[in-house]
Predict the structure of Beta-mannosidase.
Amino acid sequence: MTDEWTGGRIVDWGEADTEGPPTVAEWRPVAVPAQRPEFGRDGDEEPGPDLEAVAYRTTLADPRSSDRADERALLEIRGGYGRMAVWFNGTKLGESDPHFVPARYTVDPEPTNDLVVACERPDAFAGIRATDEVPASFATPGVRWNVDLEPRPATFLRRVKAHPRLERGERGEGTDDPRGEIDVEIEIDAGTAVDDAITLSVRPEERGGGATMERIPVTAEAGERTTVSRTVEVRDPSLWWPRGYGPQHRYAVRAKLGADAAERTVGFRRVERDADGFLVNGTRVRARGFTRLPGGDPEADVRRALEANATLVRARGHVPSQALHEACDEAGLLVWQDLPASGPEFAARLSDADEGDDVIERGRRLATVLADEYGHHPSIACYGVQDEPATPFDDPVGSGFTGKLAVRYRAWRTAIDRAPAEAIAEAFPGDVPVLPVAGQPGTDPDAAHLFPGWQYLEATDLSWLLETYPSLGEVVGGFGAGTLADEVDPASVPGLDADAYARRAGEPAASREYQTRTLKTLVETLRRRECGIFAGPPIRDAAAGGGMGVTTAEGEPKPAYEAVSDSLEPVQAVLDDPPTPGDSVGITLCNDTDRSLEAAVGWRAGDETGETTVPVGALETTPVGSLTVPTDASAVELAVEAGSRSATNRYSL
């Protein structure tokens, strides 16, 4: 891909009948691809809030070999955010939407070629990019992922899709072995007449596995595009499992026609959900982890989550590149994938008498396309539809008895119309669960956003909140507390509530300590209460200067990262409350594995120590006893030994 791009704000799309490229205010150097294009309106350094449409321009060299006169070229654009239109050497090739579907155009290049890509901001399904959770520049229309112009044979495989289905059979069902099927669809672009057969093979990714192979006849006239499909049966397939519950078996599906070949990777698994959480392949699993915001490298975000003992990543309010899902497929992390549908403004449009039906229908189409493009990834455990439809706790709420009354009152007076989100949810295929609404108490959410200790009450009041509203503890889609870097105005940091920051911390060093204590309390409370599914704070800040993430925007860990990593150890001892010198506090042993264990649990506080051995069932918690914190102790340290597993957990005083 070229390294030299210019871009500019579109001021005139031109006449509809001319089909020429749009006119821009000024062409200026820009980086493509870019998560947040850094150019603004009419020379401003920062993107203007009304930067609705942007054009990008570059030149591309002919990629074909001089000795291959029959070669053709394929232009592929991935991640064109918003409605995208493409011109190649002045000719309009077409339009594309949504951004997560690759736009592909067969072209006949000159030695040097002019490419113009115009992107217009989505008017409805902009997701979290259109909220103040992320920098305003994240909503700037642009090419987020990549642009490639590649040589292809005269006849080539334009698109290969492979969707696995697991028909029956699960762990522990005896002779009822599972049967897998892979629905394969192949689009052929015939530059010359073709009367041939596609060789289709399916083989395990692990070495030594047996492969199946068959041939699919294909005929097409020169200049024609045609599609063939086949369902391939895989007997007794090896299943894909989340990390900690089994191996991540996958299959390579390869199609070959003449000199051209394409390969896709799929995995077999079945995901269901009940009040206790996910069942994967019929086995109960615990899903704990982080939310993920747009803006960073998806593979790096997955690696950070993995190293922090996560088993779940929620792509909140946006659709990232499939690099994230591929990394999760390999690592065994479950993915909670949202539609780009966030915020009260979007909720108002869903319920609007004039345009609500149209937005719902567009949402249903988007759900279908998302599942079609991403559904082959075995890591996808659920889809989310509507994120944060109301914000009843934007104004701060205090703590104590009056604070609890205020929380109950605000939850009571908040109401949303769930019907639009449920209508969109019905458009997803039934192979994985769907969560129609994720939001705060009072929004009747399928997944709760819980912010005690930040927006309201104290972190230790999470147990009261879940006892008052038990359904909020079934699936949790977000919680946290924010931090601020030195010499940064909290009001300038996207996603950071400046009022909450002032009340809870007030200065940068204190904010990092406060985030650590708060997240540790919230994570461990949810584990003690055996919450089956929770995605907690963002794995990374969305912007420099601070935020709700456990690492900075550059990926540097904050103190809370290590603390949460300890709290998420699969087998871990936790305190029932934050420790206080002179007070007694209980200890609970949490086991997220699918095996019963006997564990030795020890503790140290100052000069005092203790140790006991207790059994704990699979996916269960058990009380271990209690300790009294000495008045001169500076920390409480817990240690767990269970077979080959060991973990420590530290609480500073």
Q: What stands out?
A: The chain has four domains: 5-150, 155-266, 271-568, 575-652.
